[in-house]
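Batch job 17 of 40 flagged for manual review because the log was empty.
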Amino acid sequence: MEEVRALVKKVRGARIAHNMRITYNESLILSTIRGNPGITAKDLAAQLQSDKSTISRQVAQLEGKGYLERRKRSGNHRMHDLLLTDGGLATLAEADETWISIVEEKQAGWTERERLDFLRLLVKYNGSS
C-alpha cells in the first residue's frame, strides 16, 4: 500500500515540481472531455467516479479559466455539452508532454522489457474492478 500511496503522492506533486498550469484532477477532466466531446457533466461524473456536485464545481472553474465551454444541447436546452476550447486543448497538450517527460525520466535506465511489463501491469491493474 505504501508504494501505491507514494505513486499517487508523486503524481499529485508533479504539478508543483514541474510548474504545470493544471492539476492532475483538472487534466483528468479535460482529457475525458477531449476523448468524449459533448459529454455532459452527469456522464463525466459517472465516468470519473465522482459526485456530480464536485464535477460541476470543477467544470465551472475550468470554464472560468477558459479551458472548456458549455453549450446547450440542440433539441434539449436543459442539457449542456462540454467541449474543450483551443486554450484547453493547448494546456492539456502541454500537460501531456510534461507527463511524458516525467515518465521517461522515471524510467531512465529501464530495459524495453521492463517498460513493457510495467505498461502491461498498469493496463491489467486499471482494467480490474
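Reviewer: the log was empty due to a logging misconfiguration, but the result itself is present. Helices lie at 2-17, 24-35, 41-47, 52-64, 86-106, 112-127. Unflagging and moving on to job 18.
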